[in-house]
UniProtKB/TrEMBL annotation:
The gene is LOC112250528. PROSITE patterns: RRM (PS50102). It comes from Oncorhynchus tshawytscha. Residues 19-94 form the RRM domain. This is Splicing factor 3B subunit 6. GO terms for molecular function: mRNA binding. GO terms for biological process: mRNA splicing, via spliceosome. Its main location: nucleus. GO terms for cellular component: cytoplasm; nucleus.
Length: 116
């Protein structure tokens, strides 16, 4: 409800805020359903990509439908404890992400999960 009020008030968000979150320090055996349970509480999700190679395990990208939902999730889930691992939740930034990590996900090596 508070996020709806912010949308109507035309709140300006910091430039780093976007719909894509980069998640680190995930448990290696986390399932897509668990990811949707955790991140879906903050709004509709368009896509989740989890790493499944040795270099990308424990990481994921979560794409929200709405930028305000992504901000809310980032604010609330940074430091959230999942199976004794504290999540690191960052806004996706193409300039900061290692090129090889980006390639692992977006050239077909990352596991894609869609929520229908």
């Amino acid at each position: 409800m508070a996020m709806q009020a912010a949308k109507r008030a035309n709140i300006r968000l910091p430039p780093e805020v976007n719909r894509i979150l980069y998640i680190r320090n995930l448990p290696y055996k986390i399932t897509a359903e668990e990811m949707y349970d955790i991140f879906g509480k903050y709004g509709p999700i368009r896509q989740i990509r989890t790493g499944n190679t040795p270099e990308s395990r424990g990481t994921a990208y979560v794409v929200y439908e709405d930028i305000f939902d992504a901000k809310n999730a980032c604010d609330h889930l940074s430091g959230f404890n999942v199976c004794n691992r504290y999540l690191v939740v960052l806004y996706y930034n193409a300039n900061r992400v290692r090129r090889s990590m980006y390639d692992l996900f977006y050239q077909g090596l990352g596991k894609v999960s869609y929520h229908c």
